[in-house]
């Protein structure tokens, strides 16, 4: 938690079943009207609970079919994650067909669901515990906070090339 907060990440600890209620209350308060989720189980649960509260979109078609909507109208996105690394505060995402990389890259707010028992002391511990050697994806991501860059006059700036905010919901 401290590692993410040090780089402007926001972290909340919730009981397993409380994340939908947290979203229903918190997202409208933050002005979020449109939420993007993958086409898997997270999206299905969101539709059941938040369908009347927010406009929900599932990432269920090629980018060319809805690029303008994604880049111009989606306020936030939500993903699950494989786990986290306590040493760095990094979240481990393995994008796939149900939750492609753009979900975590484009919207201004990225919300991540993290199971508390999937937090590992180091990246090496995560790789060993989750048997990465036998099932590496084509694209593994380590996200340690909202997007940031120091390209502009060597000054650290947040939210330039991706989400301006990262919210991690630790479940368990």
Quickly list its features.
six-stranded parallel sheet; alpha/beta; globular
Explain what you see.
The radius of gyration is 16 Å and the shape is globular. With 172 residues, the chain is of the alpha/beta class. 25% of the residues lie in helices and 28% in strands.
Question: Quick recap of the structure?
Answer:
The protein is α/β, with parallel strands linked by helices and 172 residues long. 25% of the residues lie in helices and 28% in strands. The longest helix has 11 residues.
* Major beta sheet summary: 6 strands, parallel
Q: For the residues shown, what is the average pLDDT?
A: 90
Secondary-structure-derived class: alpha/beta
- Through-space gap between termini: 14 Å
- Helix run count: 6
What is the N-to-C order of secondary-structure elements (H for helix, E for strand)? Answer: HEHEHEHEEEHEEHEEEE
Number of strands: 12
What Rg is obtained from the alpha carbons, in whole angstroms? Answer: 16 Å
Helix content: 25-40%
Note the topology.
Layout: H1 2-6, E1 10-14, H2 19-29, E2 34-37, H3 41-50, E3 55-58, H4 67-72, E4 76-80, E5 83-85, E6 90-93, H5 102-105, E7 109-115, E8 119-120, H6 123-129, E9 141-143, E10 148-149, E11 157-158, E12 165-171
Parallel strand pairs: 1-12, 2-3, 2-4, 4-7, 5-8, 7-12
Antiparallel strand pairs: 5-6, 6-9, 10-11
Helix pairs in contact: 2-3
């Amino acid at each position: 938690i401290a590692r993410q907060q040090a780089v402007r990440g926001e972290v909340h600890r919730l009981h397993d079943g409380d994340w939908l209620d947290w979203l229903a209350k918190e997202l409208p308060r933050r002005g979020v009207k449109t939420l993007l989720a993958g086409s898997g189980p997270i999206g299905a649960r969101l539709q059941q609970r938040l369908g009347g509260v927010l406009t929900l979109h599932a990432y269920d078609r090629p980018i060319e079919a809805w690029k303008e909507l994604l880049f111009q109208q989606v306020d936030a996105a939500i993903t699950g994650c494989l786990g986290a690394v306590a040493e760095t505060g990094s979240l481990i995402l393995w994008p796939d067909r149900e939750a492609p990389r753009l979900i975590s890259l484009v919207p201004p707010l990225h919300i991540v669901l993290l199971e508390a028992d999937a937090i590992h002391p180091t990246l090496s511990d995560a790789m060993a515990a989750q048997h990465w050697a036998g099932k590496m994806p084509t694209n593994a991501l380590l996200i340690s906070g909202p997007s940031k860059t120091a390209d502009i006059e060597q000054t650290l700036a947040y939210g330039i090339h991706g989400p301006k905010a990262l919210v991690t919901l630790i479940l368990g």
